[in-house]
Design brief:
The protein has one helix at 2-105. The chain is 98% helix and 0% strand. It has 106 residues and is mostly helical. It has one helix and no strands. Residues 1-24 are annotated as: Disordered.
Length: 106
């Protein structure tokens, strides 16, 4: 009987403890829910930033590819120009030799 009386006497304290614990858990739950909401907002912001960066990257890749094509065309032109310059130099040398030969013979 004493034991039951002891449990009965303890019951109000246990109830109060449980209430306080419930309040504390609800408060912690709300804090965590707010934190999750904030983190979800950050995730959404980061997703938007990532999308913007991906679009910029695609645009820059397109520009880079265009510049590479231009550079290749310029390199081909330069190589052709060097060949023409070499031919011109050879032509001038031949003309000078021919002109000197004509002066000696003439």
């Amino acid at each position: 009987m004493m034991r039951k009386q002891s449990e009965i006497d303890k019951a109000p304290n246990d109830i109060e403890t449980n209430k306080n614990e419930e309040i504390s858990l609800k408060s912690e739950n709300q804090r965590l829910a707010n934190q999750i909401q904030m983190m979800n907002q950050q995730v959404n912001t980061l997703k938007q930033e990532n999308q913007t960066l991906m679009q910029q990257n695609e645009m820059l890749q397109g520009q880079l590819n265009g510049l590479k094509s231009e550079n290749q065309a310029e390199m081909k032109f330069y190589e052709k120009w060097k060949d023409v310059q070499a031919e011109l130099s050879e032509y001038k040398k031949k003309n000078i030799r021919t002109a000197r030969g004509a002066k000696k013979n003439g």
